[in-house]
Amino acid sequence: MAEKLAPERKHSFIHNGQKVFEWDQTLEEVNMYISLPPNVPKKLFYCNIGSKHVEVGIKRSPPYLSHDVTAPVKTDCSFWTIEDDILHITLQKRDKGQTWSSPIMGEGQLDPYTTDLEQKRLMLQRFQEENSGFDFSQAQFNGSCPDPRTFMGGLQSS
């Protein structure tokens, strides 16, 4: 049932008309997807994940992406992989349940309506996690949605 509340689509960060990356999030992590340029050996790509900063590039070249992340991440649980010419970065949220409006600070923010939809989906994921015998995939909120990180005493850390 939890898979019914998984992100339905990826958000895109577009800069100067070009897609920089796509991303989605769950209660525990933010995933970034970067399409890699063709004809560059995969072993030349690198990704450095700090608790407040992420950097992606090709060795011996200026970084493609070097930005602070929206909120701190757990570096011991964050990682990156390359598959099918996509660099996939998984950032483990330090504050489980926090709704991010973008993976990188100050860039490509979701509009308020989409951020609200993300917060509602994360709240339903939280309900599903805490009540695994129930199906919350069709549940809806009337009015504003509470913060999934702090609602009713907050989330238990994983």
Q: Can you lay out the helices and strands and say which pair or pack?
A:
Elements: E1 11-15, E2 18-25, E3 29-35, E4 45-49, E5 53-58, E6 65-68, E7 73-83, E8 86-93, H1 112-130
Antiparallel strand pairs: 1-2, 2-3, 3-8, 4-5, 5-6, 7-8
Question: If you compute it from the alpha carbons, what radius of gyration comes out, rounded to the nearest whole angstrom?
Answer: 17 Å
Q: CATH fold name, please?
A: Immunoglobulin-like
Estimate nothing, just give the exact number of structural domains: 1
Helix content: 10-25%
Give the strand line-up of the largest sheet. Answer: 1-2-3-8-7
> Which structural category do the helix and sheet elements fall into?
mainly beta
- What global shape is seen? elongated
CATH C-level label: Mainly Beta
Q: How many β-strands, per DSSP?
A: 8
Protein name: NudC domain-containing protein 2-like
GO molecular function: unfolded protein binding
Organism: Dorcoceras hygrometricum
InterPro entries: CS_dom, HSP20-like_chaperone, NudC_fam
How would you describe the overall organization of this protein?
- It contains 1 helix and 8 strands, in the order E-E-E-E-E-E-E-E-H.
- The strands form 2 sheets. A 5-stranded antiparallel beta sheet has the order 1-2-3-8-7, with no helix packed on it. It has a 3-stranded antiparallel beta sheet with strand order 4-5-6, with no helix packed on it.
- The chain has 158 residues and is mostly beta strands.
- It has a single domain, classed as Immunoglobulin-like (Sandwich).
- Helix content is 12%, strand content 34%.
- The chain starts with 10 loop residues before the first strand and ends in a 28-residue tail after the last helix.
- The mean pLDDT is 87.
